[in-house]
Queue: 2 jobs
Job 1
Amino acid sequence: MANDNGGESHPSGEGLARLRAACENCQGCPLGATRTKLVFGTGNPDADLMFVGEAPGGEEDKQGIPFVGAAGQLLDRYLFAVGIPRESVYIANVLKCRPPHNRDPLPAEEDACIGYLREQVRLIDPRMIVCLGRISAMRLIKPDFRITREHGIFFHKGKYLMTAVYHPAALLRDPSKKEDMLSDMEKIREKLDLLRGELDTTL
Ligand code: URA
């Protein structure tokens, strides 16, 4: 998968390819100089469901693809369990470059990078956005988001339906959260089925 292009050979992915090129040249914060590979995003450029994590980890930095390390493999298992093919969704992060030692993103790094994510969302135009973890939820849903209390709750933001689930890395640290994760992912699948059904009846 090292030559993954995030579905940009698809006709509607051309805007994403241009955006990726802009990110490749970005030196908007110091992480552009310390990363190994840019982790732009991957998946279906026409996805109706988009996942947004925090920032690339070590394995992602090596491969240039989001969620391919241990946390990503766990995410894959939840996607499989609820019948959502990974290749049907789009996966990106708040930051496109790895923070050293996997520390939390700094506000200045998020500010420098968030415009790229906004443009990605505009181009993909999903119906639902799922934040993976509190950092993404605090940035995309609301600054005071509390993941332990508010995971699995749906929020309307503009034209997007949004929710957050535990970050898969948090599940690796605390397996007692796994039950909640499965039920949140099942709710996401059900909501997506409803949205897709609504679309069918309007055609
Ligand atoms: N954690 C994230 O938030 N994103 C990745 O891509 C990998 C791990």
Job 2
Amino acid sequence: MNRSTSAIVIGGGIIGCTVALELAKRNMHVTVLDKGALGQEASTAAAGMLGAQVETHHPGPFYELCAASQQMYREWARELQEISGVSPQYIEQGIVRVALTEEDEAELRSRLPWIRNAEWIDGADARSLEPAIADAARGGLYFGRDHQVHPIHLMNALRAALSRIGCEAREWTPALRLIVRDGRVTGVKTTDGDLYADHTVLAAGAWSPALLEPLAVKLPLFPVRGQCISVRTDAPPIVRTVFTKGCYIVPKQDGTLLIGATQEEAGFNKKTTVSVVSELHRRATALLPALSGAEFVSTWAGLRPGTPDGLPYMGQLQEAPGLTFATGHFRNGILLAPVTGKLVAGLLDGDQPALDLSPFSPERVQ
Ligand code: FAD
Ligand code: GLY
């Protein structure tokens, strides 16, 4: 690929920015469009867990995709910091996944035959790892390789890296519709005029389907709201992330504790509600009683790009030459960024994918 090849990436979240960076590293001329500021949506609402183990409930292609991205993360974060000069706050502490009920314990035990990088721990082991965990903990799984980053710092690093590598980011420039000439996607109509490129990448998160209107292509994808709160205690009660069914608590470098998250289908509504905030705090306190008197810091919500089968869309369609899909990463877009960037950039460059992409192809919903 050379500088005379061009791409437009619609959507400046973690997925669009990572794909753009990979394309720019391959010497392509890249323009990223965002309807607002880069990273203002799901990507900075996220908790930042790199939970290949904790977030996977079945073996299969999705687990392998998550595991591949997790393996790439440390080096990817290091390189990103080197290019940008900004630390994404990659923290090498694992996740203690605790069961508080018999049913949850059974679900965790059912993963043991296939899950890798996991160790069964009883309640006392869990408390020896993290002494603040409640006595009610029945035991669970310790995922030592499920590290974390800080999504806001990660997006700052990506923004700086794109600028340093010469990738044009057009913020506050919504894509209005795809331009289709003789059946091929040749560009994008924006509020700032028409743009043309050899390739267009659709990475608009939960908003992706709206842009497909000129094509006879289906893309079942919907927003799934996640509400979170941030709290602080006098002394940080945990160093690792602790996670139970319906609630996780992620300790951040600045001493705050991120408590997440709901999973609600409420359209494009990003409101937070008092009842949810108090319920999240109740669940967090059941897991870590030390949070009962915590100082409230903030609350927010983000819209995950959900798909009916829970898998992302990565690939191209015969019906839409010129267009590449990189969307629908639901609960795992932060984790899946490095592998998505490499695979999607490779598709535009004609590489043989390192992983079988057919389970993630948008072909499956046509
Ligand atoms: P987004 O970040 O939503 O980006 C899409 C971008 O497209 C936006 O910036 C938007 O403005 C832009 N856009 C939309 N329409 C247009 C248009 N017409 N023109 C131009 N631009 C447009 N993942 C993890 O791996 N680990 C976690 O711990 C984690 N925790 C989460 C916690 C919460 C509460 C939530 C909500 C999500 C969490 N996720 C997590 C999931 C992760 O945040 C998402 O999968 C990821 O951010 C999706 O990235 P994206 O770039 O596809 O979407
Ligand atoms: N991956 C955590 C969440 O989506 O809430």
